[in-house]
Amino acid sequence: xxxxxxxxxxxxxxxxxxxxxxxxxxxxxxxxxxxxxxxxxxxxxxxxxxxxxxxxxxxxxxxxxxxxxxxxxxxxxxxxxxxxxxxxxxxxxxxxxxxxxxxxxxxxxxxxxxxxxxxxxxxxxxxxxxxxxxxxxxxxxxxxxxxxxxxxxxxxxxxxxxxxxxxxxxxxxxxxxxxxxxxxxxxxxxxxxxxxxxxxxxxxxxxxxxxxxxxxxxxxxxxxxxxxxxxxxxxxxxxxxxxxxxxxxxxxxxxxxxxxxxxxxxxxxxxxxxxxxxxxxxxxxxxxxxxxxxxxxxxxxxxxxxxxxxxxxxxxxxxxxxxxxxxxxxxxxxxxxxx
Length: 339
Description:
Blueprint: E1 3-6, H1 10-21, E2 26-29, H2 33-42, E3 58-61, H3 64-68, E4 73-76, H4 83-90, E5 99-102, H5 115-123, E6 130-135, H6 140-144, E7 149-154, H7 160-168, E8 173-178, H8 181-203, H9 208-228, H10 239-250, H11 255-264, H12 269-274, H13 281-296, H14 301-312, H15 316-324
Parallel strand pairs: 1-2, 1-4, 2-3, 4-5, 5-6, 7-8
Antiparallel strand pairs: 6-7
Helix pairs in contact: 4-5, 8-9, 8-10, 8-11, 8-13, 8-14, 9-10, 13-14, 14-15
């Protein structure tokens, strides 16, 4: 039994390190030649995960075929904008019985598909894929440092989530199983949008009241869209929902919160992004989520304002003021659950 991790960024590297600690043979595919050579030399990804040395059970690969051929478990940890191309490249390589685990938190641009939907579409050309997704509050650095972490693994096929759950769980890493892959994927993607709003609030030097309101009302509107798209409401009260949202809105390691914070300080988005090593998924997800909300006619005022800031150059302070001056309403609606 062996595993392959696609993606040599911080999360892919941390996950390969984690699996390697379980003495599972792991092949880590790294796209960048310089990062690959560096990691091969030092057994440490000094670009994206400095300070964490890989165990001997992890090997490093720059050629996709050598990394993925014959893998029993395939973990894919790359930005959503590159996933369709990667799935197509993996199509002729993977064996049909491999268990696929998406570690990506995003929504594909234009098609508005979740990653499990995209996998099903691409791999259907050769076989029906065995698809799961893993999400929840899990900063890469803290997983690499063996901090106690709890996540959720979801699949809409019976037994697959439990298979992945038992594979990834460890003394410091606890996985829960879920059959609500729609909710888990949407929660993981949409929390990044709310985290940008939280960062903006902090950048504007608003206080704890503001942050608490954004988190609470943020999970309310994320839940609304999720339920509209077929997710279970309770998923958004769990690890993939409120758990990941709290982490991403408050944690100093959050890339999306960082983007918002810098926007709140008055920096231009293009300048913020150009200075980052890693992708902040919330930027692209904001556009996809905005389009989804418009299509489904779901009211998402925080998302609307983040969209206006990122894509229409709206002043962040005015956006937060506009949120506060909306028409007053009840907090809960009896049938739909959250207003």
